[in-house]
Amino acid sequence: MAAVLRRAGAQLLRNNIQRGGHGWPGGSFWAEGTQTGRNGYIFGETPPPPGQKRKWESWELIFYTGFGIAGLTAWLTLYGPDNSLQAWARPHALAELAEEDEKFAAYAADSSLQQEMADKFTAMGKHPDRYYDAVMMRNEFAILQAKHNGA
């Protein structure tokens, strides 16, 4: 068994196939670079000759596009339109509150309407002051809302 392992090890050393790195200057990707010193340009990249454009690397288009999309997404998330449920519901709620205000104002101004509502609540088996309680709760809500908004 030991002889077989020795022979296999020797065989591996003899048939050492170099894998990858054939196209890199200096022999492999991990070899020391070929640049001898600093040339004064950012990232050591020399500018192209006059009249020629710089050729992009293979990764640059994906990189710049990805960062552009990420930046646009971040900007829209932070400063874009308000798509919250509260923003959608606010106009509907304000319209309903204005309609309620009109009903409550009509109720407060008309004593016959007050008597009619009291009769309806009595017929339903509820105390006639329930409608008045609803008016009072609405007024308390308006006060709390004004406090919350800083008015």
UniProtKB/TrEMBL annotation:
Transmembrane segments: none annotated. It is a single-pass membrane protein. InterPro entries: NADH_UbQ_OxRdtase_ESSS_su (IPR019329). The keyword Transmembrane applies. Keywords: Electron transport, Membrane, Mitochondrion, Mitochondrion inner membrane, Respiratory chain, Transit peptide, Transmembrane, Transmembrane helix, Transport. It comes from the Eukaryota. It is found in: Mitochondrion inner membrane. The keyword Electron transport applies. One of its GO terms (cellular component) is mitochondrial inner membrane. Complex I is composed of 45 different subunits. Interacts with BCAP31. Accessory subunit of the mitochondrial membrane respiratory chain NADH dehydrogenase (Complex I), that is believed not to be involved in catalysis. Complex I functions in the transfer of electrons from NADH to the respiratory chain. The immediate electron acceptor for the enzyme is believed to be ubiquinone. Belongs to the complex I NDUFB11 subunit family. This is NADH dehydrogenase [ubiquinone] 1 beta subcomplex subunit 11, mitochondrial. It comes from Tetradesmus obliquus (Green alga).
